[in-house]
């Protein structure tokens, strides 16, 4: 939160502080800010401008070109050729990234090039598997299927990407490096089932269960990252939260047939996600939670209360009441947060992420 002198004058006008305190308090804050060093990662915090848009958009194009849009023509290079090409690409991106990372105003571009280098890991491992004969699938399965089909054979590619991403993060503190790690964890949550349960490749019920618990584990990791690293130093937990939620929510939602009590529990879980969004200050939780709650309301409308005239009116009243609660919270948010800060034990407050 940024504060200027006018804010202090406003506080004096509201009777929160004495008018005589404004000037000495402002001077003390100015001296405190001048003595405090800026965070080391301040230069890589993303801002919405054309330069950063170009950096991220260009990086995504390169990543898609080297992953999602790989065509069958690349298979003609063979396993050895793919491995060598991936290593050359990665080396070039690392060297260019190191040059840009050393600059004061080009750290974002440098960090993105390091991220592109990490994204070359699956291709390198795939080529290495093919040239060593370790590839278990037939020739009909190629690298272009990695992002579209669920197969236990992709596990080593995902594991290698996670390891290379963690190594890069150890030396380059760039938050977007967590994106390929989180994506690989999400893909692994679907591909790991046949490895854990003896090759049950198409047991979707088991896959959904594994995906759900894998997502919970990923969310726990994201939470631990969130409480240990201040967000002003870079949001290293966002992508872990996003893909962890995807893995958990889809695994939970697609479970299939269930009775009304289980559907109600599903609604309560999604309400819990929405509450977590407030406690953790993460909007992504409220998105998934709201979709889940509305899907439950849709079930009620089209199945349980399909002939009930008053059901839409009841939902309308509920929605207006929730809006009213939001207005009250916005009006008294400072008092509410101050009250919660006084009521909550210190050990609970320490468990919440820090801004």
From TrEMBL:
Keywords (A to Z) from UniProt: Membrane, Transmembrane, Transmembrane helix
Transmembrane segments: 50-70, 82-101, 108-128, 148-169, 176-198, 204-224, 236-255, 261-280, 285-305, 311-329
Superkingdom, natural source: Bacteria
Key word Ribonucleoprotein present: no
Protein's UniProt name: DUF2157 domain-containing protein
Keyword set includes Transmembrane: yes
Signal peptide stretch: none
């Amino acid at each position: 939160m940024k504060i200027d002198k006018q804010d202090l004058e406003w506080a004096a006008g509201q009777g929160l502080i004495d008018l005589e305190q404004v000037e000495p308090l402002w001077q003390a804050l100015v001296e405190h800010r001048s003595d405090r060093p800026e965070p080391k990662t301040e230069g890589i915090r993303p801002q919405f401008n054309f330069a950063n848009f170009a950096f991220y958009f260009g990086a995504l194009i390169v990543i898609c070109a080297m992953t999602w849009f790989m065509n069958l023509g690349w298979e003609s290079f063979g396993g050895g050729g793919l491995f060598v090409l991936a290593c050359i690409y990665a080396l070039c991106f690392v060297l260019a990234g190191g040059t840009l990372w050393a600059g004061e105003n080009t750290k974002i571009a440098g960090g993105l090039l390091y991220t592109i280098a990490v994204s070359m890991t699956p291709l390198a491992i795939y080529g290495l598997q093919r040239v060593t004969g370790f590839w278990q699938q037939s020739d009909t399965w190629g690298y272009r299927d990695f992002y579209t089909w669920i197969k236990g054979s992709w596990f080593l590619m995902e594991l290698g990407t996670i390891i290379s991403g963690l190594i890069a993060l150890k030396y380059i503190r760039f938050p977007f490096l967590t994106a390929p790690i989180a994506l690989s964890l999400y893909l692994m949550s679907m591909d790991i089932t046949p490895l854990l349960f003896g090759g049950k490749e198409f047991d979707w019920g088991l896959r959904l269960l594994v995906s759900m618990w894998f997502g919970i584990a990923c969310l726990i990791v994201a939470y631990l990252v969130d409480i240990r690293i201040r967000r002003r130093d870079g949001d290293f937990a966002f992508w872990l939260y996003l893909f962890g939620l995807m893995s958990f929510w889809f695994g939970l939602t697609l479970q299939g047939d269930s009775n009304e009590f289980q559907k109600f529990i599903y609604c309560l879980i999604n309400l819990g996600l929405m509450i977590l969004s407030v406690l953790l200050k993460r909007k992504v939780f409220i998105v998934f939670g709201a979709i889940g709650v509305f899907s439950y309301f849709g079930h009620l409308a089209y199945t349980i209360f399909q002939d009930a005239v008053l059901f839409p009116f009841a939902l309308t009243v509920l929605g207006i009441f929730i809006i009213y609660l939001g207005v009250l919270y916005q009006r008294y948010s400072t008092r509410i947060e101050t009250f919660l800060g006084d009521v909550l034990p210190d050990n609970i407050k320490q468990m919440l992420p820090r801004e």
